[in-house]
Amino acid sequence: MTSSVVPALAALLFASTAPLLAQAPPAPKPDAPPADTKPAEPAEKAAAPAGNALVDSLTEAELDEVITLLKNNFIKPEALSDKELKRATVQGALARLAPGAALAQAPAGAAAESSPFRSEILDGRIGYVRLGSTSAANVGELDSALAKFAEKACGAVVLDLRATPSSSDFEQMAEVCRRFAPKGKVLFTVRKSNVKQEQVLTSKEEPKFRGIIVVLVDRNTAGNAEVIAAVLRTHSTAMIIGQQTKGEAVEFTELPLASGKLLRVAVAEVALPDKSGVFPGGVKPDVIVDVPQETAEAVLKQGLEKGVTDLVFETERPRMNEASLVSGANPEFDAAHALQKSKGERPKAPLRDAILQRAVDFITTVKLYQQKTKPAK
């Protein structure tokens, strides 16, 4: 039997055993924490290694043996025709290489996605930046925002990468990192499949911000945003909050098929200074905050249109105070009367950005600790 059948078997076994593995309950881990202490990671990231383990344990001789046994005994021989084996090979290869390879009906990168920049100051003490696209224009906006934060003596910055579209513009990734990383550091290295020499990108100037940095990511964060988050954690001790990222810190090329379909393949990979990669595992946050996709989309939409302050801080309910006593008003009574007029229906809970709230809580805690441990003059 030819060696070309071997990858076909691997793909076939991967495809056929995956449903069975998915149905089986996971083996208990002796030291695992209670289920409610940490949100589960995305299923697609957790299932892949288990699905490959048994196939990976087979020797080349065993692969040939299993192929022969399948062809001689399977109830539907047509499922093991040369055509079906080739189809299984492609299906299994794409599944194993994901997210580094995929088939598409039309060009996925025909038009670069754009996302606007936004910044504001939270509670007069925390600079907030929604980076958007890693374009030259947005990097310029970032410089202006950091200068404004410095004028207002903001000792902390939240860099929100949840609305940053995936891109493989390595130089623009480096430009964002340079705003926060120390001078002279290797930011990341680009390894290309067909080029022996690696591209090394470094920080060239002193950082434009020194202080507490918190980076926000979610399960849709991919490509350049993943690299920025990982580099800032490495060089600027940034805290990453949110969900595990996609694991697509690569450069893709789209290869056309004769039918017009496209094969999208990763041709360059980003490696961090310690030689570790972000592809395909993604970036795991320091603090995991699980948020439903619907809520995440609503938060990003409102944050762009109206700002994020109202998504973070609670609105204090009306209370009696000195001013109301002088005016003879009773805000508590007025609130109760309004609730009674609405037939007792309580207003819908306001939308909150749980990930950003956690970031603000973290910064507040660090600041309080720094104040308490600051030596007396």
Number of strands: 11
* Mean pLDDT across all amino acids: 81
Protein structure class: alpha/beta
Ranges where pLDDT stays below 50 over 5 or more residues in a row are 1-50
List the helices and strands and how they pair.
Layout: H1 5-23, H2 43-56, H3 60-73, H4 82-97, E1 101-104, E2 118-122, E3 126-130, H5 136-151, E4 156-160, H6 170-178, E5 186-192, E6 199-202, E7 212-217, H7 224-236, E8 239-242, E9 250-256, E10 262-271, E11 287-288, H8 293-306, H9 309-312, H10 322-327, H11 331-341, H12 354-373
Parallel strand pairs: 3-4, 4-7, 7-8, 8-11
Antiparallel strand pairs: 1-10, 2-3, 5-6, 5-10, 9-10
Q: How would you describe this structure to a colleague?
A:
- The chain has helices at residues 5-23, 43-56, 60-73, 82-97, 136-151, 170-178, 224-236, 293-306, 309-312, 322-327, 331-341, 354-373; strands at residues 101-104, 118-122, 126-130, 156-160, 186-192, 199-202, 212-217, 239-242, 250-256, 262-271, 287-288.
- The radius of gyration is 26 Å and the shape is globular.
- The model is unreliable at 1-50 (pLDDT under 50).
- A hairpin with a 3-residue loop joins strand 2 and strand 3.
- Helix 1 packs across helix 2 (43-56) and helix 6 runs parallel beside helix 7.
- The longest helix has 20 residues, at 354-373.
- The strands form two sheets. The chain has a six-stranded mixed beta sheet, with helices on both faces.
- The protein is an alpha/beta fold.
- It has twelve helices and eleven strands.
- It starts with a helix and ends with a helix.
